[in-house]
């Protein structure tokens, strides 16, 4: 069996801000390892740095250059604006980049005005002048299309909330920041799952076809498992693997509540699932959402305020997690029929990101 190797593009994962621009601009990356060319297409899907966002918003607000066409792609505009204002490399030119590049001088002038208005000299001072807590965060909920269609869910929610559909993730609804949906009947019945935008992109990025066999390698509590099941319209087969006994029960409960009958829950260490086992010979896709530091959500977690927190314990934990993630990714790559892997994790640099890599293998 040929062993697939991640080549070259792992640096995308680590290259921070530039890589975040890759979503719309990187279409094909080839990496050669002698006679093995395995990693042909890679896409970094999510990319909003919380700290840059308010600056970019203020700049756009000041210059008002976005036509309605570009407003519909606002997130992409923020990323390109980031590159124009703070990037160090030449931009790859698509239509969106060309459009904003024409406004480069106006945008830079707006940033200069913002510095004056905020009474700071440098952009780094500007960044710290924004408080994360000042950013209103919308609430998201993902419709379980195994139980309910999007229109019916919208009709129901609109009785109570101002709600709209997300432009990027089908079936994802956006609610106002303070909407509390935990006790909503549609949530209780498993027709809707409370899942943030980043998490909701994972199954969509995997893009499973209804007849596929899929492994969800680190599955509990199972929100992504049931999202994959819904995208497969309840057909095909999902093997949902979970190591932790208590969490296996949670996973089973989620699957049952969602009515996802094509999911087989396995209480096992993913690393012990043998790629040579005939039971997995037809597995075409793997969703890999391994335990991670959550550092990409550090602003919400506030771990550093815990009495047990020390910088050393954090480093130790990160090293262990990183070693596990590497093993798990290598293991996923060793399944013979796998064509697609989505690897999802959070990481932090001086900004905060969730990283989602889609690997299409041949
Ligand atoms: C980030 S959570 C997964 C979240 C899940 N994908 C979801 O969206 O609901 C990671 C899970 O992987 C499990 N896990 C950790 N190591 C594992 C291993 N070696 N094999 C299988 N599961 C593992 C953890 O117990 C945890 O439940």
UniProtKB/TrEMBL annotation:
CC terms in the record's Gene Ontology section: nucleolus
Domain SAM-dependent MTase RsmB/NOP-type: 129-362
Matches recorded under CDD domains: AdoMet_MTases
Swiss-Prot/TrEMBL GO biological process terms: rRNA base methylation
One of the record's GO molecular function terms: RNA binding
Key words of the record: Methyltransferase, RNA-binding, S-adenosyl-L-methionine, Transferase
Pfam families assigned: Methyltr_RsmB-F, NSUN5_fdxn-like, NSUN5_N
Binding-site residues, S-adenosyl-L-methionine: 218-224, 242, 269, 289
Membership in a protein family: Belongs to the class I-like SAM-binding methyltransferase superfamily. RsmB/NOP family.
Record-given protein name: SAM-dependent MTase RsmB/NOP-type domain-containing protein
């Amino acid at each position: 069996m040929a062993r697939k190797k991640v080549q070259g593009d792992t640096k995308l994962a680590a290259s921070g801000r530039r890589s975040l621009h890759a979503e719309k601009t990187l279409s094909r990356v080839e990496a050669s390892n002698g006679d093995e060319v395995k990693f042909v297409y890679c896409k970094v899907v999510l990319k909003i740095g919380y700290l840059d966002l308010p600056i970019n918003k203020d700049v756009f607000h000041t210059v008002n250059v976005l036509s309605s066409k570009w407003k519909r792609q606002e997130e992409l505009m923020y990323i390109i604006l980031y590159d124009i204002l703070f990037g160090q490399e030449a931009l790859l030119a698509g239509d969106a980049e060309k459009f904003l590049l024409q406004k480069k001088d106006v945008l830079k002038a707006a940033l200069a005005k913002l510095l004056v208005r905020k009474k700071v000299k440098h952009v780094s001072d500007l960044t710290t002048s924004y408080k994360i807590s000042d950013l209103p965060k919308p609430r998201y909920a993902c419709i379980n299309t195994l139980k309910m269609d999007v229109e019916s869910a919208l009709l129901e929610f609109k009785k109570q909330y101002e709600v709209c559909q997300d432009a990027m993730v089908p079936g994802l609804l956006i609610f106002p920041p303070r909407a509390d949906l935990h006790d909503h009947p549609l949530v209780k019945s498993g027709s809707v799952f409370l899942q943030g935008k980043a998490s909701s992109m994972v199954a969509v990025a995997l893009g499973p076809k209804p007849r596929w066999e899929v492994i969800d390698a680190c599955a509990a509590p199972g929100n992504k498992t049931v999202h994959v099941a819904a995208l497969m319209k309840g057909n095909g087969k999902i093997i949902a693997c979970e190591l932790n006994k208590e969490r296996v029960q949670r996973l089973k409960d989620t699957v049952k509540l969602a009515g996802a009958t094509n999911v087989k829950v396995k209480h096992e260490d993913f690393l012990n699932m043998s790629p040579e086992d005939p039971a997995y010979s037809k597995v075409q896709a793997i969703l890999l959402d391994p335990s991670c530091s959550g550092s990409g959500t550090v602003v919400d977690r506030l771990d550093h305020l815990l009495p047990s927190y020390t910088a050393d314990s954090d480093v130790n934990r990160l090293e262990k997690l990183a070693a596990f993630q590497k093993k798990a990714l290598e293991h996923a790559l060793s399944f013979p029929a796998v064509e697609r892997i989505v690897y999802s994790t959070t990481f932090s640099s001086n900004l905060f990101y969730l990283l989602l890599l889609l690997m299409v293998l041949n």
